[in-house]
Amino acid sequence: MRVLQLIDSLEAGGAERMAVNMANMLSETVERSYICATRQEGLLKATIKPEVSYVFLNKQRALDWAAISKLRRYILEEKIDIIHAHSTSFFMAILMKWVLPKLKIIWHDHYGDSENLKNRKYGVLKFCSTYFSLIISVNTDLKNWAHSHLNCKKVVYLPNFVVQEKDLHKVTQLKGISGKRILCLANLRAQKDHHNLLKAFKLVHKQYPEWTLHCVGQDFKDRYSDSVYQLVTALDLEQQVYFYGSCSDTNAIIGQADIGILSSSSEGLPLALLEYGQGQLPIVATSVGNCVSVIPEACREFLVPPNNPELLAEQLMVLISDGILRQHTGDLIHQHVMKHFSALTVKEKLMSFYTEL
């Protein structure tokens, strides 16, 4: 079995991390494991294992004949059986299916705005879904949506997963006081609702002025990111809130933090929560998407409604005020994540899907 993970970029986003993690994981199982970035490389390129074959297309437009020809030749030369297309890369996968009909196409839906599926545009996706052999959804809402709206008969739910790395290569040094750091792993996108986070942190800062907030994620230099920085200034938090951009050393960063937070207005199944859990961080998060599945029942008081900075701040302060509770909560979440979202558990399910094809 030879499987190609297809992804538009290798920037440090959730879907991109999952594509790389799957390619790395499968290199130990299938005959050959491959990954292809269609449009853009990025930080995650350095995390691809040597055993995984990598190709970059440098695609410049929707119908880039040079990129299409390059991928077709590569698939033929490597005798690839399955293309596992992540997020918006499905169109390139379907082009390959049209010229190489024996290919099996899996589409992996990482759509993060699952609270607003009624507004999702899916005309092209619906047409292409006729050629999918399987759709994998990262939460049950997306699975149900695909069943109702797309033309692929086989749709399954497969959770995101975390990969345990032995070494923490420490590059990024978090600012602030050790033992008093709140971490938010989230690209600067509107659905991550940093406005909610900053308003909550302002309330926390009034009670606990030594605590600091650390935001790690890609800055797209757009109106949303501008609005986030403007709010930091308006709330007079320039000395307490730090932005680091995209970072590849996530484990090392988590190792320096004390609480993990996610303030999103909408989610799929956020990898950030799984990474917090793997790193034994206690978590405060909004109850959107499949976030609830990451938090064990005993810790669900730390799930709050979206767009409610008062409640978000309240639960943050519960953890800040009690170091023993922070440790206990982090341990419970860690055990839950490693039991239900480990690479081994997901690999077995994924291999069964591939084998059926």
TrEMBL record:
GO molecular function annotation: glycosyltransferase activity
Domain of life: Bacteria
InterPro entries the UniProt entry points to: Glyco_trans_1 (IPR001296), Glyco_trans_4-like_N (IPR028098)
Every Glycosyl transferase family domain range: 180-329
Pfam families per the UniProt record, alphabetical: Glyco_transf_4, Glycos_transf_1
Keywords of this entry: Transferase
Domain Glycosyltransferase subfamily 4-like N-terminal: 13-162
Protein name per its UniProtKB record: Glycosyltransferase
